[in-house]
Amino acid sequence: MSGNEQDSVIYAPDIIRISERVHAKRMGRFYYVRFPYSEAAVKTMGSLVGASWDPRDKGWHFPWHRAEILERAMARIDAQLRLEGIDVNTPDLPLTRELVIDDGDLAPGRILDLETGPVAIGKVGVPFTGTRSLARSTGKKVTDKPVRYVWHRPALESELAARAVREEGQDEPIPEPS
Q: Element (H or E) spanning 127, and its range?
């Protein structure tokens, strides 16, 4: 190799981990990219040349030979998620399925108070009307009521604190110390 030629080494680690929930794993010719949902994060990832959403895997694919670009984009996504108050440091926790009465406000990220304590909704199923047999099998009073299955995990302290701030009223002035 002459002095003018450069070594063509491509940066392509097996795993790119920005935070616990913003990471990518190299799988063959692509990175499989995972991060919590956020409209801004999706826009950032979707703007990258070569990025593609795989609805079957529910994740993003990105060409392995562009790892440096991916790593910079993932750092931006991590920052966007943090600015939106989305926890990026707690590992993804397994979700539990629960039948609940649909109050019209069920959505991923919402905190729901169940008998077992506050939970964060991760996924929401399609609405349907509860039946007598469903009421018997679940022990819940759902006959002829709008219901949905929600998949949830225990709410984090940071999520409960954020809910308390929202409920406190962000438009009210902060009181001066006395």
A: none
Q: Are 105 and 176 in contact (CB under 8 A)?
A: no
Q: How many residues does the chain have?
A: 178
Here the contacts of 102-108 (C-beta below 8 Å, separation 24 or greater) are 102/127, 102/145, 102/146, 102/147, 102/148, 106/148, 106/150, 108/37
pLDDT score of 1 more than 50 = no
Q: How far apart are CA 114 and CA 48, in angstroms?
A: 40
Kindly give the residue spans of alpha helices, DSSP state H, lying in the chain.
39-46, 67-83, 132-138, 157-168
Q: What are the tens digits of pLDDT across the range 19-75?
A: 989 999 999 999 999 999 899 999 999 999 999 999 888 889 999 999 999 999 999
How far apart are the C-alpha atoms of 4 and 24, rounded to whole Å?
34
Full-model pTM? 0.52
